[in-house]
Fold this protein.
Amino acid sequence: MSKWAGTVVAALAVVLPSIAAAQASITGVVKDTSGAVLPGVSVEASSPALIEKTRNVVTDATGQNRIVDLRPGAYAVTFSLSGFVTVRRAQVELTGSFTATVNADLQLGALQETITVTSESPVVDVQGTTQQRVLDQEVINALPSGRNQFNLGALIPGVSVVGGQDVGGALGFDAAQGLTIHGSTSDGQRLTLNGVGMNAPVFGGYGGGNDPSPSGVQEFTIDYSGLSIEQPEGGVRINFIPKDGGNLFRGMVFSSFAHHRLQADNFTQDLRDRGLRYGNPIDRNWDVNPGFGGPLRRDKLWFYASVRSNGAWNVVPGMFYNAVPCWRRPAAREASARPTSP
């Protein structure tokens, strides 16, 4: 079996400050040292992942705040109110649709005072009920798989693959067609890009319309249980979060190659004695997947582009090339020369 994937520009993201990209969020309650809630506190989330650098909200009458649609990355959250010491919480790591709860207690003090709290990010999402796995670039490149959403999603316990499973990239293309779990059907699966549905059918209606280049994806988020009521289907939901460049030019290259000399041989003498002339070695397979991005205009316009060429040629046991086409065989020529009866 073989397939030439060609050279495909699979991910090109141009991100403007007005675009709401991912679904991660930061929420919390601000109080004073006596435990009373503080309305009107300015809450700022800053990160290099945001093209506008910062997002700001103000706490409501109950002291609560929520900053939504944040891209994956590390954030610093700053709480400030006139007459109180400013509190800054650093290293809040966001992935997928994770909701980080970041609370703060402000104490009376001078305006120039700032308290910086550095600690590990919350590891439990106490806001959402969706069961989700986040697969980032480190996982995508390290695992020996076909490096696509289906073969990576198949590693989640309980998830089943519709179609063939590509082990170690041996098939060279996306043999799998969909994911199912907990009795769901493959047509209940949906693919989304930054939360926006990809409605064009693919693979006979398995809920997709694009197959992004892995090096152009910031992370795959796979929801498999407890989906939002906003979703009309109950199947697996796969969300692609593309890379969007940044204020620094940077890139990456993933490449792999294999042929029969790099493959173990299980073609035993017993198989030879039974008449099998050769096994099923790999002829060749490859995957070359570079990506590059950066600023077109700092803090205004970013880009990221990814190109991929991959494929595989495999040998099927017991099949041989027919060197003599049927029309050249003597029996075929004799049959064609016979007169036909009226």
User: Anything to note?
Assistant: The radius of gyration is 28 Å. The chain has two domains: 1-16+129-342, 24-118. The chain has a mean pLDDT of 76. The first strand starts at residue 2 and ends at 4.
